[in-house]
Structure formats: structure tokens, C-alpha cells
Amino acid sequence: MAMDRYVITGKQRLEGKIRVSGAKNSSLPLLAAAILGEGTSTLLEIPDLVDITHMVEVLEHLGCGVVRQGKTMQINAGGLESCEVDEALMRQMRASNLILGPLLARFGRVKISRPGGCAIGSRPMDQHIKGLEQLGVKVREKHGYIEAWTDHLQGADVYLDVPSVGATENIMMAAVLAKGVTVIRNAAREPEIVDLQNFLNKMGAKVRGSGLDAIRIDGVEKLHPAEHIVIPDRIEAGTHMIAAVMTQGDVVIENVIPEHLEPVIAKISQAGARVTLMDDSIRVQQRGRIRSVDLKTMPYPGFPTDMQPQFMAMLSCAEGTSIITETIFENRFQHVDELRRMGAKITVEGRTAIIRGVQTLEGAFVEATDLRAGAALFLAALAAEEVTVLEKVNYIDRGYENLEEKYRQLGAKLLRIHQEG
Ligand code: UD1
User: Fold this and answer.
1) Using CB atoms within 10 A as the burial measure, which of 66, 125, 171, 360 is most buried?
2) Greater pLDDT, 115 or 404
3) Atom of ligand 1 nearest to the CA of 162
4) Angstrom distance (rounded) from CA 307 to CA 324
């Protein structure tokens, strides 16, 4: 894949308005859920991201018709014919495993290539599989494939050992068409799960309790297509908030649901930012030195792991020492070496990083290793002295729509250089 780079001139104060796109992590399960409706569902505010394109390719491969017009996507699952996805397609994106639940619900059969690990950790599927087995699914793993089948799905009490987002979504999408009642205990509570519940209920499902730690699903016979607007991306919003802080800026972030950002707002306020909440926007202002804060990543409503690298970039130039503990993914400190190249003083001990704030970061040649690590380096570059060349920005494209354009409007100085081959 051709990899592009950004050339960023730092220390430009960001000012103005920026609009957040629809949530990637909601769009992916919602697209998978569209499989459940026998007809054409419409999803609005779907961001234009590579991961979305990959999910659409998976749906098309299964026989769905997908039409995109701007941010609106129509998914016709009436002609669904296949329940197998091969390795090439699965490898493009882990989240394609979200078709397991809906395909079992509609066909009682599915075969997918097992998703591999990724840069941030090993990412097992045991909770997805255990939960589906409790609904009466047989699962066989062979030659790198996961094959699952069932005569009929039977509601059950499912307890998750860890509140996995993907497992909660898969089990929920299978259980909506199961016979009887399913309760998912120790379920993930992320806003994206609530969004999925809302869409499923519009399709005629009976799901209650998401956002709390037990979700109850009363199985129904059939689901019909529906229309739904994707929630705004809280991680994108959080990233912009940090950009405002790191550039001593004044930025209004539009299209947000402030409650979804509580842990992020709490931490940047502690760091000294002035945060003003409005109905569906947040204004972030920063003057003077950022203060150090400690944080620990936790399942929602705790501090999101997907914001950890960006916070580390911010705390790299705070006054004093901060401690970050990563409890969700075992290998999510890949941005540390790159931040060090920019002058950050960070030591890692197992799952803990100790960040000694420096006066200022310095421009350097750095490389994105995954989506959020890339976002962290992007932010660091905005705050750094002189010029940063950020390589492999295509990783950043997986989660941020129109980043250059959005930031240019805020006053950032950046250039994207397209590379061939
Ligand atoms: C989702 C998000 C991702 C985010 C992550 C955690 C999407 C598309 N992606 O990923 O951006 O970083 O939540 O907030 O929504 N685990 C198991 N067994 C399993 C499944 C997970 O042990 O069967 C563990 C994982 O190793 C990890 C933790 O559970 O330590 C959380 O993973 P999970 O919530 O499943 O993440 P994803 O749904 O893959």
C-alpha cells in the first residue's frame, strides 16, 4: 500500500470550529447489523474511512447491495446469499468479525477467517465464541478459520469474563433473533453499544439495558430494515480537544455528545484546560502551561484506551511528572519511542509509562505505527518547534475523516505528500 506523509510546522495556535464525523466504532457494528433486516436499511452520518470501505466490501461479498451518497448509506440485505468470508477480506480489518452474530442469526451458519493480531496486542476472540456457544452455536476452529453453525439460537444467560465491546455486540446481534430471553452480564457499556441497541430496536428487536452492565434481549421472529443516524465519534472529538490544549488554542468542537466524553473532559480540566459545554458542542481553551495528571485506561465509563496515546503526547509537554497505566491492551505504547524522538522524556515499566514533562517538543522524523499512535504524533507535531515529518499517515486515515482540511481551517500548517508504491 502506498503510504503518505505529513509535513507539519508546529506552534500554530488553533482557533475556530471543527465538526466531528459519525463514529467509526458505531458505524462498523451498525453496518453488520443491517444484515439482520430483510430489505434496505439506511444509515446516516457514516464517515468516509478506509475501515468503512472494508466493511462494505465484506457486506457486498456476502451479497448485500450497498449504495453510498455522501454520508448516507443504504444497505440492501434482501439478497444475502453467502455466509463465508475469505482470508484476504478478513485480514484488512479485525472488526469484520462483527458479522459472526448477524449471520448466525439469519442463516444459522458462518465461516470466517480468524482475524490476526494487530500492532496494539493479541486481541483474542474467546469471549465472542464462548457467548455464542451459550446460545447453542457449535464452533470449530481449523486451518485459521472459525466455522460456526446452529439449528436454532436459544436465549441464555451469558457472563463475559471481560467486558469486550466486540463480544457484547456480536452476542447481542445473534440474540435478537434467538428463541427466548438472553441476558449479557458484565457487558461492555460503551456508547457505541447503546447506539447498536437503538438501531436494533428500530428494526423490531427487543433490547434493553445497554449502557448498564446487564443487557436483556427478548428474541423476536424477524427484523425489518430501519433508518438510523450514527452517533458522533467521541474519540475524534477527544483528539480535537487535546489539539486545542496543546496549541494554547481556542476551539469549538461541534457535533458531540458531551456525556460520552466525561472521562476525557475530567482529565483535560485537571490538566488546566477551560472546558465549556454546550448542547452539542464543546469549547476548549488553554492558556499557559499544561499540568501533569495521572490516568489509567478502563472500560467505559472509565478513561478510553483509544485516547491514551493522545494524552501521552499532551502530558509530554506538561509541567511535572504524569503516570499513565494501560490496562486494556498489552502493547499499546508504540508511540513512546517516536515521542522520544521529538524530545519527550518517557520511561515504560510494563503497563505503566512515566512521563516527565519537557518545556517543548521538537520537530523530528517520526512514523505512525497504528491509528491512535499516529494521532498522538500528529498532535505532538502541532505543538512542536519547527517541522515534523510524520510518515505512514494512512494509519491515521483509518479513524479520522478529512483531517488535513479540518485542521487547516483551524490554522494548522500542514502538507500531505503522496507517495507511490
Ligand atoms: C473496540 C474498539 C477499539 C477499542 C476497544 C477497547 C471497535 C471497532 N473497536 O475493539 O477501538 O480500542 O474496543 O475500547 O469498536 N478480549 C478478550 N477476549 C475476547 C475479546 C476481547 O480477552 O474475546 C480482551 C482484549 O484482549 C482487550 C479487551 O478485552 O484486552 C477489550 O477488547 P474489546 O473490547 O473486545 O475490543 P474490540 O471490540 O476489539
Assistant:
1) 171
2) 404
3) 29
4) 11
Enter the pTM of the model: 0.97
Contact between 26 and 60 (Cβ < 8 Å) = no
First vs last C-alpha separation in the chain: 6
Segment 340-385, tens digit of pLDDT: 999 999 999 999 999 999 999 999 999 999 999 999 999 999 999 9
Q: Is 161 exposed, middle or buried, given 0-12, 13-18 or 19+ CB atoms closer than 10 A?
A: exposed
Residue 69 CB partners (closer than 8 Å, separation 6+): none
pLDDT of residue 314: 98
Rounded Cα gap, residues 160 and 255, in angstroms: 33
State the Cα–Cα distance between residues 325 and 102, nearest whole angstrom: 35
- Contact (Cβ atoms closer than 8 angstroms) between residue 314 and residue 271: yes
d(CA 21, CA 55): 18
- Which of 246, 247, 241, 290 has its CA nearest to residue 261? 241
403 confidence band (pLDDT: 50, 70, 90)? very high
DSSP state of 116: -
Contacts of 70 (CB under 8 A, 6+ apart): none
**Cα distances (angstroms) measured from residue 196 to each of 190, 213, 313:** 10, 15, 32
Q: Is 166 in the pocket of ligand 1 (CB under 6 A)?
A: yes
pLDDT of 143 reads 86
> How far is ligand 1, taken at its centre, from the CA of residue 147, in Å?
21
Residues 160 and 185: beta-carbon distance below 8 Å: yes
pLDDT of residue 45: 98
Q: What is the C-alpha to C-alpha distance for residues 409 and 402, in angstroms, rounded to an integer?
A: 11
Q: How many CB atoms neighbour CB 393 within 10 A?
A: 23
83 is catalytic: no
Helix pair 371-383, 234-246: axis angle to 10 deg: 20
CB 11 within 8 A of CB 247: yes
How far is ligand 1, taken at its centre, from the CA of residue 330, in Å?
Answer: 12
Which residue's CA is the nearest one to ligand 1's atom 30? 328
- Which of 134, 325, 328 best tests ligand 1's pocket when mutated (most atoms within 8 Å of CB)? 328
Say if residues 108 and 149 touch (Cβ distance below 8 Å).
Answer: yes
Tell me, rounded to whole angstroms, the distance of Cα 38 from its chain centroid.
Answer: 27
SS3 365: strand
Helical spans, DSSP H, in 21-99: 24-33, 50-62, 87-92
pLDDT (0 to 100) of residue 210: 97
Ligand 1 pocket member 165 (CB < 6 A): yes
